[in-house]
Specification:
Strand order of the largest sheet: 1-2
Number of strands: 2
Order of helices and strands: HHHEEHHHHHHH
Largest sheet: 2 strands, antiparallel
Helix content: 55-70%
Distance between the termini: 34 Å
Number of helices: 10
Low-confidence stretches: 115-130, 188-203, 212-219
């Protein structure tokens, strides 16, 4: 997915598209724009999350509230937990959205991860299914879903979006997933700590903003010419 030398704008653009494809395919056209807005922070991010746009979805063309603005905010707020889970030394292949949803439901039912004991049933001890790492990821999914629900999202929709996003991040955990999460969370950290002086430039994101603006103008021009 990456050559290991991607710039910040490249990382943000590539991962925004990948997660949108997995979690909210009807929103891929503005995935980069919304991720950029969230990463840049400030009033733009707060306004986007507070008033998520409506998008056309489904075969009937109905309007639904966009998932991505809330998802970017939830991923940013869960950044450290996600990076810890993704960086687990236990390596498991084939982590899927369905597998994470199953682990999430078992976690909520009180099951324990493989190797632990207690009064409730243990999780699947078969190492081929991911074992303890799947449990760590399910915990991260639960946190992202909880934050999505705090934005007013239906619990089932929140679980699906969170599991899809975490599965995509896990698949690319060695290809910039952590860097993407840091970019999303960077402005949130700056807002909280006050470390970045007001008006300090973020040149990488500014370049991406210009690129996104150009792409949107091109798309509108194509639409008028049809």
């Amino acid at each position: 997915m990456s050559n290991g030398h991607d710039s910040a704008p490249d990382v943000l653009e590539r991962w925004a598209a990948a997660i949108a494809s997995a979690s909210a395919p009807y929103e891929t056209d503005f995935a980069v724009h919304t991720a950029l807005t969230c990463a840049r922070g400030g009033r733009g991010r707060r306004a986007l999350v507070r008033r998520a746009p409506s998008v056309t979805a489904g075969s009937g063309g109905e309007l639904v509230t966009a998932v991505l603005p809330a998802l970017w905010d939830a991923l940013a707020a869960s950044c450290e937990l996600l990076k810890s889970a993704l960086g687990s030394p236990v390596v498991a292949n084939g982590i899927s959205t369905a597998g994470l949803l199953l682990a999430l439901h078992r976690r909520r039912d009180g099951a324990l991860p493989a190797g632990e004991t207690g009064g409730s049933a243990a999780a699947d001890p078969n190492p081929a299914t991911g074992g303890d790492e799947l449990w760590l990821l399910a915990r991260a999914v639960a946190e992202v879903s909880r934050r999505l629900q705090a934005h007013g999202m239906d619990p089932a929709v929140a679980d699906q979006a969170a599991a899809s996003a975490v599965a995509a991040l896990h698949a690319g955990r060695d290809e910039g997933a952590g860097a993407f999460l840091d970019l999303l969370a960077g402005e949130r950290r700056d807002d909280a700590s006050g470390d970045r002086p007001a008006g300090a430039p973020r040149t990488g994101l500014r370049r991406l903003a210009a690129r996104v603006t150009g792409l949107r103008c091109s798309a509108r021009a194509r639409g008028r010419s049809r």
